[in-house]
Write a structure and sequence with these properties.
The protein is mainly alpha-helical. It has one domain. It contains 6 helices and 4 strands. The strands form 2 sheets. Strands 1-2 form a two-stranded antiparallel ribbon. Helix 1 crosses helix 2 and helix 2 runs antiparallel to helix 3. The two termini are 28 Å apart.
């Protein structure tokens, strides 16, 4: 949950790098909350089968659109790629597969053009929404 809160609190930060765990936990919790929003839509009657969406789930998606885009760009930066690669999502099937490979790729070791490697910094999410410095293994 802390990774999700870290990504949301950095909602407009397109610079820097994001670890795989930050990216994947963000989308895990996004999907959990989205399903909950769908349940609320059905319960309150705002779900429209014709549109395939409901008021609460649509608002939820729009609110987290920018944080999702930002964490994706930072994840691409972590692999040494430009954030413009996110445009591959518009290429049917092949773009999704290529993006999945990029997003699953391990961090580029050491510093790159987008900043220091977050794994080398020894940062991990701590209690609450902030981050806490942890000892690096030797």
């Amino acid at each position: 949950m802390n990774w999700f809160l870290k990504a949301v609190s950095s909602y407009a930060a397109f610079s820097g790098r994001a670890r795989r765990s930050e990216y994947w936990y963000f989308y895990l919790f996004f999907m959990v909350f989205y399903v909950a929003a769908l349940v609320v839509d059905v319960a309150v009657g705002s779900w429209s089968a014709d549109a395939g969406a409901g008021l609460v789930s649509t608002l939820f998606s729009f609110v987290l659109l920018l944080p999702g885009l930002a964490v994706t760009v930072r994840r691409l930066h972590d692999t040494g790629r430009s954030g413009w690669w996110v445009l591959l999502y518009f290429v049917p099937i092949v773009g999704l597969v290529v993006m999945l490979v990029f997003l699953c790729t391990d961090s580029q070791p050491g510093d790159n053009a987008y900043g220091p490697n977050p794994k080398d910094q020894g940062w991990a999410p701590g209690p609450g929404a902030g981050v806490t410095r942890v000892a690096s293994p030797r």
